[in-house]
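User: Please predict the structure of the protein below. I'd like the answer in structure-token form so I can feed it into my own downstream comparison script.

Assistant: Understood. Taking the following sequence of 181 residues as input:
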Amino acid sequence: MKKLAIFLADGFEEIEGLTVVDLCRRAGLDITMVSIGESLIVKGSHGIQVMADIRLQETDFDSLDMIILPGGKAGTANLEQCGPLLEQIDAFYQAGKYVAAICAAPSILAHRGILDGRKACCYPSFEQHLAKAELVREPAVVSGNVITGRGMGCSIPFGLAIIGVCCGQEKADEIAAQIVY
């Protein structure tokens, strides 16, 4: 079974984070919510507090198949200031493992050169950060070992793209039908 982790920082967009977790768990994927802070409680961009499963320092990155980054302007800024997470993102990408980001968070991948020459999407006001990517305005895009999504309203297609990569398109279609998408 594929093991995934979604990294939560204060200011993360709740729908983007929790929709992905919900969909992945419906698909039978092992997804862990990781707080990059000292507390397991992470405050979302709209004041909703979420309890993560573990903290960053407790994460066994060697066991993971994918790193997922939700957006939210403040959440993205906080993720991008987390040096240990950025090191792991780089290592995953270099090893051919999957990295996924939605909304503002693809800007983190772009700043690290991961999106150079790749099809990618992000929240419209962050598109200038993707100058070296082939910008597409689709809800979610898979390009090699990188998955990007446009924004909160695209959380379901983004989650289904992750399921498609991990479990196959048939499973993604099955989950889409189950949630009447």
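That's the full token string. The CA atoms of residues 27 and 49 lie 25 Å apart.
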